[in-house]
Structure formats: structure tokens, C-alpha cells
Amino acid sequence: MANLHPLIRYHKWRLDEKQRALAALRHEEEQILAEAEGLEDTIKAEQRAAETYHEAAFGYANFARAAIGRRENFAHALADVRARITTASEELSEAFREVKTFELAQEERDKIEATERRHKENHILDETAQIGHRRRQEEDAAIPD
Questions:
Q1: Tell me: the pLDDT tens digits for 26-49?
Q2: What's this model's pTM, rounded to 2 decimal places?
């Protein structure tokens, strides 16, 4: 039977790569969320400044339009990265299933080989015992009473 260990090692490497890719996507999601939260804080600060200072109110409209655009960009980026996270999670699950499949197949092969090896060893021991028994019988028959 073929040894599946190299194949298992390859699939584990692929699994690790997929885990790293998923971690990178989750980090990207966290960054987008942090930037969006920072934008919301900036919007609140600008609103307070516009309420407090009459001069700041004139520039707030332009800021608000730009902030709305950035908010939409964050929403699109977040939706995109979450879709990629879903895809990466599915790929990770599939890679894990593949690794498990090969590991289970190798375990079964190892069990079969161990059973065959025990049978061969037992057969050799049985033959050795039979030969020894025959020799003793021949020696006993050769010795006159």
C-alpha cells in the first residue's frame, strides 16, 4: 500500500496557508471596522465643532458629503471582505476535510499493515516452533531407551 504521509503533509501545508489567508482577511475586516469607527468619531467631533463655532458650520457641508462617501466606501469594503471571509472559511473547511480523509485512510492502512505484520511474525514463530518440536521428536526417537 502506498504511503500517504507526503500527501498528508502537502494538504496540511495547504490547510495552514488557508488559515493564514483567513486570519489576514479577518485582520483586514478589523482594520476597516476600526477606520469606520474613527470616521464616526470624526463626524461627531465635526458636528460638535459646527454647533459650537459658526465659522466651522460653513465647511461642515463639504465635510459631511465627503464623510458620506467614505462611509459608503467602508460599507462596500466591509461587505467585500466579509464575502471573501465566507469563501475562505468554506475553503478552510474543505481543506480540513481533505486532511482528515487522508489521515483516516493512512490510519486504516497502518492498522492493516500492522495486522499483516503480526500475522507474518506469528507464522514465522509457529514454523520455528514446529521445526524445534520435530527436532526434539527426532532426537528423542534417535536416542535408544
A1: 999 999 999 999 999 999 999 888
A2: 0.73
Within 10 angstroms of residue 18's Cβ, the number of other Cβ atoms is: 19
Q: Which residues contact 63 (CB under 8 A, 6 or more apart)?
A: 46
3-state secondary structure the chain: CCCCHHHHHHHHHHHHHHHHHHHHHHHHHHHHHHHHHHHHHHHHHHHHHHHHCHHHHHHHHHHHHHHHHHHHHHHHHHHHHHHHHHHHHHHHHHHHHHHHHHHHHHHHHHHHHHHHHHHHHHHHHHHHHHHHHHHHHHHHHHCCC
pLDDT score recorded for residue 138: 85
